[in-house]
Amino acid sequence: MFWSERARIVTLTAKYRIPAIYPEREYVDDGGLLSYGGSVLENFRLAAGYADRILKGAKPSDLPIQRTTRFELVVNLNTAKVLGLTIPPAILNLADEVIE
Fold first, then answer.
1. What is the pLDDT of residues 34-68, one digit of tens each?
2. Of the candidates 68, 67, 87, which has an alpha carbon nearest to the alpha carbon of residue 77?
3. Environment class of 67 (CB within 10 Å of its CB; exposed 0-12, middle 13-18, buried 19+)
4. How far, CA to CA in Å, does 86 sit from each of 14, 48, 72, 83?
5. How many other CB atoms are found less than 10 A from the CB of residue 93?
């Protein structure tokens, strides 16, 4: 539900000037302020690996639990400027991507 409504969520947070941190970078691509979370593409790749193994005969109960190992911090400086916020240099240095 949230994924399909992310543009609306980002629009509403901007309208009411709410600085928000989102779980996926796609929210920041849509104009959100910050995101910190696992890569959606990596999660799909992990799911595809499970599907491949199951289709080749593996029992789902025998497969190990996997989780995202890479987390991304993405900052949108355009949104920060609109909100009147200054992102500290320490955060910008840690960011995997800064959108200007």
1. 999 988 888 889 999 999 999 999 999 999 988 88
2. 87
3. exposed
4. 16, 40, 20, 9
5. 8
